[in-house]
Amino acid sequence: MIRPITKLGNPVLEMPAEPVTAFDSDLAELVEDLFESMYASHGAGLAAPQVGISKRIAVIDVSVDEAPRATIALVNPEIIHTEGRETLKEGCLSIPGFYESVTRPSTVAVRAQDAHGSWFECTGDGLLARALLHETDHLDGRLFLSHISALKRGLVKRRVKKLIEAGRW
User: Fold this and answer.
1) Which of 66, 86, 100, 135 is catalytic?
2) Cα separation of 1 and 94, whole Å?
3) What CATH code is assigned to 11-165?
4) Can you give the residue ranges of every domain in the chain?
C-alpha cells in the first residue's frame, strides 16, 4: 500500500523514533509499504517517520531503476563507522522541491536488523553512504536541514511556512 509522505511541519519528523521489538507480519507489511511508497515517490530511501510512524525502520534502494533492484531494509540501525567527507546536493521526500549542499561522511558502516530480526552489517560509499546517513538521521529525529547553515535553514523554513499559509504544502 502506498502511504502518504509526511512533510516538514509534522512533529513526528523531529522526534527520535521508537525501537522495533516485534518482528512479525505487521512489520513485514510496513517494510513492503515503505518500499512501495518510496518507489511511488521516486526516492532512494524512506524512513517510517516519513509516513507518520515513529518506528526505527528505513528502506533504501540506490539502484535507480536498475534491474534487479538493490533493496536494503534497516530495522533499529546504528552507525558504527564513518570516514571521509563529501559535499553534494541533497533533498528529502518530506521537504519536496528543496535541495541544499550537505557535507557528510563519504563512507559509512551500519549495523541493523532485517525484517526478521537478524543482525547484519552494511557498508556503503557515495550515494549509498549518503542514503544510509540520511535515513538514520530521520530515525534520530533529524532532517537534512540540520546539516546546513542556520541562515539557509531559516530561509527554507520561511518558504515552507508561506506554502503552508497558501495551502500549497
Assistant:
1) 135
2) 18
3) 3.90.45.10
4) 11-165
